[in-house]
Amino acid sequence: MYVCNCAGVTERDIHEAVDRGATSLCDLRRELNVAADCCQCACDAKRCLRERKALIEQVALSNLARPGKLGDLGLVA
Amino acid sequence: MKADRKIITALNAVLKSQLTGINQYFLHARMFANWGFEGLNKSHYKTSIKLMKESDKLIERILFLEGLPNLQSLGKLQIGENVHEALKGDLNYELTSQHVAIQDAIKVTGELHDFASEEMLRDLMQSCEDNIDQLETRLSLIETMGLANYLQTQVEDDD
Fold this sequence. Notes:
The complex is a heterodimer.
Chain A: E1 2-4, E2 9-10, H1 11-19, H2 25-32, H3 42-62
Antiparallel strand pairs in A: 1-2
Chain B: H1 5-35, H2 38-64, H3 83-111, H4 115-145, H5 147-153
Helix pairs in contact in B: 1-2, 1-3, 2-4, 3-4, 4-5
C-alpha cells in the first residue's frame, strides 16, 4: 500500500529506508519527502517505522549468538 | 432554513468521506486502466462519478440548511500498489470511513427530526452497502478462483 500519497511513498520504501538507518520521522522526511506536504500520513508513516524497527530489534536479538551485520540478518522487504 | 449546527457538522463529515471516495475510486480506476484491467476501470469510474453526484446533493442540502459545505477537507486515500491491495483499500474505506460517517449522520438527523436529510442519508447508506457488497464479491472471487484467473476476467479484448 501507499503510505504517503503526496510523495508516492510505499510501505516498502519506508522499510528500506529504516534498513538503511533511518530512525525517526525526520529522517524519513529528509530521505523520502514523506509527510512533508499534507502530513495526513504522519501517523501511518510512524507506525510503519515502528513496526520495522521492532522487527529489526527482534531479528537482532534472536541472532545475538551469531554476530553479523544488519544486512546479514535475513530481513525481508 | 436554518438548521442545528450538529446537523451541518454531521453532513460535512459525510461530505468529507464522499470527497475522499471520489478521489480514491477515480485514481484506482485509472490505475486499473493503466494496468490493462478495463472491466475494473469502468466499474470504479462509475462509482466515482456516482459519489460525485451524491456529493452534489449533499452540498445543496447543506447550503439549503444555511451551512457552508466543507470542500477543503479530505481524508487519507488508501491507494494499493496492485489490484488486490486496491480493492482491499476500497473496502476498508467503505467500512471505516463512509459507513461510519453516514451512520453517525443518520443518528444525528433522526434525533433532531431532520427527516429530509435522514432520507437522503439512507439512500447514501444503500449505495455504500451496494459498494461493500460488490467489493466483497470481488475479493471472494479472487480467493476462490485465484488472482490470475480473476484478473483475466477483467481484461477486455482489443478491438
